Amino acid sequence: MRISDRVKTGPEKAPHRSLWKALGLTDEELSRPLIGVVCAQSECVPGHNHLKNIAQAVKDGIRLAGAVPVEFPAIGVCDGIAMGHIGMKYSLASRELIADSCEAMAQAHGMDGMVFIPNCDKIVPGMLMAARRLNLPSMVISGGPMLPGKMPGDARDYDLNAVFEAVGAYKAGRIDDQRLNDVESGSCPGCGSCSGMFTANSMNCITEVIGMALPGNGTISAVDAARIRLAKLTGMRVVKMVEEGLTPDKIMTEAAFRNALCLDMALGCSTNTVLHLPAIAHECEIDFDLDWVNETSAKVPNLCHLAPAGHHHVIDLHLAGGVMGVLSELAGKGLLDENAMTVSGMTLGEEIALARNYNTDVIRPFDDPYSATGGLMILRGNLAPDGGVVKRSAVAAEMLKHEGPARVYNSEEEAIAAIYAGAIKPGDVVVIRYEGPKGGPGMREMLSPTSAICGMGLDKEVALITDGRFSGATRGAAIGHVSPEAASGGMIGLVEEGDIIAIDIPAGKLELKVDEATLAERKAKWVCPPPNVTKGYLARYAKLVSSANKGAIVE
Fold it and tell me: Scanning 23, 157, 263, 272, which has its CA 20 to 30 A from the CA of 251?
């Protein structure tokens, strides 16, 4: 018996069949498995503008395999367009809406299997959360990365981060209006997720190693016909998965998450993976321990310096061998569980055996890494007892250890105004608080402040610490997810102007150098500011959301 029988089989389901027939389905189609195809296409997000083409290819594959596709939509926020204003409060919060809406549609309409079509930042983890919650045979096929931008007479590759940094350079008087317009017009040349190893591409690559997508999902460009072929293969394969009963609980195991962290460290993925992996693991009833991050980082070298850490982009990674090419450098060294199952029906080890590293400049060999340790690091100390995260691979060597005076701001807007006004000096530690999951609410990304700092040439002299988070495009000594957050009474809420903050990234330390007696006095006087939002979805979200160290899940 199929799940879809509850909406189409037997005389008592005649009304249900009547409604399916109103959609044009025949009796023959109603005798076959129904596969939900949830597509996040929209005209709001460059990474999603072309997803109808992916959806059509998936549906073609499903029909080729003898089942019936049923498409429905999902929302998606463009983090770049939402950046730097109230829109960013909705970005992380939208992850829960996506998961919930996918669950509601699949359950209400009796799907036998699912194909999820995301591309950008929160849509990928939201759909993975839904896939495990539903536990139907499921696959992910993303829309693919954007090509990097090119300028006439300039051999360099450009991306969205270049535009944000250009704003900082413009404010500092380092470029003029014409140059700013050239950069904004040429950096994002078309459809696809932003071209560096930012959050969207990080999560799409991780989806491969976690076993929920076919090889190539994270790296085949949005405009490559190979992505259409991959979508057709996905549609065909999911029908076989329904026949086999291969469900996400057999794929998204603890071993899969540990494998995902190995790729994360080798690639130098976005810090947002440390929010999304715990949230997906929560749906899998797996207790994702942040200590796994540092344990993995200590063993897995950083093999790639993709933008923003370096000048390579995701298309370069694809041509060098893609995700499996990276894993081929880690295979056989006791780091990966190569017996982990994937949606292909093969083990991860079997998939890796078909791959190789074609370019040792893009994917460094295991014995010649960029660094012996991984791309991310969890920092702890009295300022972040439950942890903070930094993309170590994107931090200049000069800033791996830093000590300086705190410049304290209670919102992103306050901080960016001060940065643009030239108030931040070399050696400063910018502190932005009340931007966490609860305090924001929504844990906004601080790409505008960090890009302004970089654009002004201060990224090797200034650090930034926040209970908010960062875009995968962020580079520099940017420490986010500080937990507990200020709105929950965390230590970051007690920092005062001029306090000395000590950062030691190699040692995993983040310390506020203020004596315990003084901190106790400040704690006794602390009063949480009133909430920034008092109605609507964000107000409900703020009441239910957990701390960043738990993945900002809604409990």
Answer: 272
For the chain, what's the residue count? Answer: 555
In order, the DSSP letters of 132-152 are HHHTSSEEE----BPPPEEET
251 band by pLDDT with thresholds 50, 70 and 90: very high
pLDDT of 7 above 80: yes
Distances (CA, A) of 50 to 39, 43, 129, 143, 307: 10, 9, 23, 7, 23
What are the distances in angstroms from CA 535 to CA 92, 126, 438, 531, 540? 17, 23, 14, 10, 7
d(C-alpha 197, C-alpha 312), whole Å: 9
Return the active site residues. Answer: 471
Q: Is the pTM of this model over 0.85?
A: yes
Give yes or no for residue 473 having a pLDDT over 80.
no
Amino acid identity of residue 207, one-letter, is: T
Q: In angstroms, what is the C-alpha Rg of the chain?
A: 23
User: Does an H or E element contain 73, and which?
Assistant: strand 68-73
Strand runs (DSSP E) across 118-274, as ranges?
A: 138-140, 149-151, 154-158
